[in-house]
Amino acid sequence: MSFGKMPIANSFLKKNQFNKQYFYNMEAGFCNTCFTFQLIKIPKAKMMFNNNYAYLASTSSVMKKHWNKLSKKIIKKSKLNTKSFVVEIGSNDGIFLKNIAKKKINHLGVDASKNVCEIAKSKGINSLNDFFNIKTAKKIKLKYGQADVIVSTNTMHHIENINSVVKGMCELIKDDGIIITEDPSLKEMLKKNAYDQIYAEHMYIWSLSSMSYLFKKYGMEIYDIENNNLHGGCSRYFIAKRNKKKISSRVISQMKLEKRIGLNKLSTFKKFQKRIVTLRGELKSILSKLKKRNKIIVGYGAPAKSTTILNFCDINFKLIDKIFDNTPTKIGKFTPGKSLIKIEDSKKFKKTFSDYCVLFAWNHKKEILSKEKHYSKQHGKWIIPVPKLKIV
Ligand code: TYD
Q1: 243 and 279: one domain?
Q2: Which residues span the domain enclosing 234?
Q3: If you take atom 24 of ligand 1, which residue's CA is the nearest one?
Q4: Do 71 and 182 share a domain, yes or no?
Q5: What is the pTM of this model?
Q6: Per-residue pLDDT tens over the stretch 352-379
Q7: Ligand 1 center–CA 160 separation, angstroms
Q8: If you measure from the C-alpha of residue 140 to the centroid of ligand 1, how many angstroms do you get, rounded to a whole number?
Q9: Which CATH number is 167's domain given?
Q10: How far is CA 179 from each of CA 80, 176, 182, 192, 315, rounded to the nearest angstrom?
Q11: How many domains is the chain partitioned into structurally?
């Protein structure tokens, strides 16, 4: 499945960087043996995770609540106390660990991007700026001992050498410890035609089948699963060393469901490809028609996902005037690739007239539409790009 030339999704640009961009050929494939849906060629990790990582998890109040809830659940279920040790892989700006730190529980956040680590540190969260792998895991084990809980949310899909990560988790976790991972779900991506989940930083889109295959190789098993609506639909996996926990009925029924809907068959992905090519045509065509009628079109949210939509659908600054976003690291910059659309502070959205607004952050629809109620009242129309092109 080819998406053509793509820039790095989170590489929002300053004007003087327009001609210095890195492009790669984005192609996705599916493996019949391990059931993994993944990118075929992956840019070097340093290209994606560096000193200027643009994504800050704490920009959404829904996300803050979500991770606060998870921390409470973990503290209760694993009976954590001040002697326990929690490690988070891909700790970003400390959105999850903040809640663990507050309870004075020993913790360490590991993140490959320096700027987000610095933000976490400024909030009093112990942070290590490094890539997590078997080497890092051994170092952490030597310095702090083994972990009671390892959490890795929205990170397992970011790391090319995922086998080294899982080996590292296995090394670092106590025999009776638990690992919790949470990532966008392949089932939901297919259901919602959310092709914008695919970009270099999202090199794998996991399913229960593929995640199980991966952890089994290292003597671990998924004993429970929860699905939620974050990021357009995520699955949270609870993992332990083999035979330590009873496998829940939820795991058994989701395994059956994944087979039933064809997550183990290439033909399922070929059908998905057809659907998204149609969606691409529809979005480009509607925006072009509106522009010809002199309508003013803007965007809301400049998630990494928007880089896939804009570049795959060949949409640029000639069609969309500007995109509003609340992330300090994105405001004032331009969307990457050939799109080059200016990103402005979402605080200005209310005062800026437009006829149509493409909701690129469609996964935050509820939060954004309730914040920007005035837009519909003033006869502005939202364009929702997936699962079907919709104007509301
Ligand atoms: P998100 O979907 O969380 O992540 P990803 O980059 O992984 O696709 O990104 C949502 C974007 O939308 C992010 O740039 C912040 C922005 N946003 C707003 O501007 N206002 C809001 O109220 C919310 C919730 C998000």
Answers
A1: no
A2: 33-261
A3: 60
A4: yes
A5: 0.91
A6: 999 999 999 999 999 999 999 999 999 9
A7: 24
A8: 32
A9: 3.40.50.150
A10: 14, 10, 10, 28, 40
A11: 2
